[in-house]
Amino acid sequence: MKYLLILLLTLGAYAEELDSNGVLNKSKIVCGNLVYSGTQSSVCFASKFLTRVTTETTIPVLRSFKDVKLSSSDLFETPFCVFSGEGNFTLTKEEKNNMKKYLGEGGFILASPGCSNKKWDSSLRQLFKGLFPENSFKKIPKDHPIFSLVYDVKALNLKSGGTANLEGLFLNDKLVMVYSKEGLNDVKNAKGCCCCGGNEINESQQMNVNILTYALLH
Fold this sequence. Notes:
Blueprint: E1 4-5, E2 11-12, E3 14-15, E4 28-29, E5 31-36, E6 40-41, H1 48-56, E7 66-69, E8 80-83, H2 93-104, E9 108-111, H3 118-131, E10 138-139, E11 156-157, E12 163-164, E13 167-171, E14 174-179, H4 204-217
Parallel strand pairs: 5-7, 5-8, 8-9, 9-14
Antiparallel strand pairs: 1-2, 3-4, 5-6, 10-13, 11-12, 13-14
Helix pairs in contact: 1-4
């Protein structure tokens, strides 16, 4: 996976974007919306936090997701991807191989089931148990930089009451994936999607800004 050094020592891939006059402006970092198991995707994951990254940091992130097939080589040109959905799912052999290679070679994934879907949570845990049998998800302590890098998030408050924790996948002591079985999606800004019954995290947008910033700087 080839990444180029950019502003703030951020590692990432690039995509050219046209300004209002149709002229190419500065390059932007692409963030992917994973498409997997044929037609399943993270289409309902709100992209508003990408805009906040551009206003709260100097990291030039494209303000919308790019659909990236997990089975495609395009995955390895995308430094950060969101992985979400609902219901049971399985990956093809090619998708599994790409997922393992992507995370092992510098890619980063932010994952959370749509509407806190338990079947999706179960499928994801089974998947990663097979992919990384010696590296189970671990609770991420509150003193980890992802809780304070841009926004100081003291607690993850659930809309139904109580608090949540984040889990992480660490490879060689490096955090390569953040996972929450509760909704880490800013659903009020998820266009065309409805979250019915999900136990969403109120601070999801701020956390996602922190997570993306961390992923691109480490």
